[in-house]
Amino acid sequence: MSETISGGHLVAKALKAEGVDVIYTLCGGHIIDIYDGCVDEGIEVIDVRHEQVAAHAADGYARITGKPGCAVVTAGPGTTDAVTGVANAFRAESPMLLIGGQGALSQHKMGSLQDLPHVDMMTPITKFAATVPSTERVADIVSMAFRECYNGAPGPSFLEIPRDVLDAKVPIEKARIPTPGRYRASTRQQGDPEAIERLADLLAHAEKPCILLGSQVWTCRATDSAIDFVRSLNVPAYMNGSGRGTLAPGDPHHYQLSRRYAFTEADLIIIVGTPFDFRMGYGKRLSPTAKVVQIDLDYRTVGKNRDIDLGIVGDAGLILSAAAQAATGRIENGAARRKEWLEELRNVETQAYEKRLPRQLSDSSPIDPYRLVHEINEFLTEDTIYIGDGGDIVTFSGQVVQPKSPGHWMDPGPLGTLGVGMAFAMAAKQARREKEVLCLFGDGAFSLTGWDFETMVRFDLPFIGVIGNNSSMNQIRYGQAAKYGQDRARVGNTLGDIRYGDFAKLLGGHGEEVRDPAEIRPALERARQSGKPSLINVWVDPEVYAPGTMNQTMYK
């Protein structure tokens, strides 16, 4: 008799072929055969307390490892609970696969338990969404979904697998099981050679160029190419999103606080892997007289929302390497004459830093948020992965916290999703056990998914959690005050005064309460030494707001 295999075991084989070594899940009767297959294939199963966390963790795993993440949830409410995580990955260009359960095909349209039109709901927020129609095709369609994750800019895929398709067994020779490494091609594109030459020419003639290294620099693992580009051509570099950390703090080409000045004064601005969305003022923050070059994995992003002088579609690393080589081969590439431009920007940086420094060192009580993020920045090591999850408090951190290595910054991305922190910390620590993980939460953000702190304890995933607690959703509160006046500033945005340090202890972790700014660093050190999941609840001043909060266009 021929050997048979179930649909769930075929899922696990397909995951293994893609290099997936962990799934994030919340159990349900529709999906348990996948667990059985994962046990046989040596794939770890991390079960969480909410499906949103499972999807966010799969997103986080992809960002950290460069491999696609995978979340597995049950049908109906299990899948709808995961929608936010998939949507966040979609906007952040993160490759992940969500597998959702579904009622049996034999009960199609009969009103089976938790039956919903999952594919219809997921299609607008994924690169690929489908139903697996037969057991023989399970592994085939899983590999197809992974392939679509990498079509252009990365993103999520969704599959629903009916219960009878998943549970059924078929002769193994009838099942198509794609061979690892042989069912999808390299997606690295070098870009149009003529466009590369045009970029080299622009660089050679530019007096005041600058470059913004966005998330796709990390997506493409283009760190070395980006560093070589800025150093060989003497170009000041700014970083955002997952591109933070490409250059270490202190590098002569690392700039942060002078970006607005540079975008106003530069004659050549190169934008790499960052769309002209709200974070870039839809492109309006760039000098109208500067030459603007945009490099992106997705053709649809290039030239969207503002005109550009040159657009190049392809892999950031290959394009930057080719452009550097083409420009360096010229007699005069402009590098030598840019010394004064870099010094000009460094003076702007120094002035901005010195202006803010008194607040970063403030001993005021309640604690100035600038003091909190300053202490965190001083505490980070080259092996600390930093995660931001919140509104106003994380806006403060974006000005001050500088990761010391590539791939060591995580934030939600352009969807602005609160509640990613616990899941990102989970994925980062599980995937990189040797790394320290520190997550700064707003108290509002933490409360969305904070119960999965228990998951961190259960799976022995130590991390340092810091809550900037102002008992408010302060970013929204500012907008309400600005729009409707102080007498209506506290409607729908005020939280309780919660001792989250005690919450951490209740769930088996390390917890502390901090009200004195001098105690922030000692508390961080104790959390590091505890070897446990930890929460340091820092009570910050609720009456101060980050400049980024006050400058949001939605409030004007």
UniProtKB/TrEMBL annotation:
This is Thiamine pyrophosphate-binding protein. Its cofactor is thiamine diphosphate. Residues 6-115 form the Thiamine pyrophosphate enzyme N-terminal TPP-binding domain. CDD domains: TPP_BZL_OCoD_HPCL, TPP_PYR_POX_like. Residues 389-538 form the Thiamine pyrophosphate enzyme TPP-binding domain. InterPro entries: DHS-like_NAD/FAD-binding_dom (IPR029035), THDP-binding (IPR029061), Thiamin_PyroP_enz_cen_dom (IPR012000), Thiamin_PyroP_enz_TPP-bd_dom (IPR012001), TPP_enz (IPR045229), TPP_enzyme_TPP-bd (IPR011766). It comes from the Bacteria. PANTHER family: 2-HYDROXYACYL-COA LYASE 2, THIAMINE PYROPHOSPHATE ENZYMES.
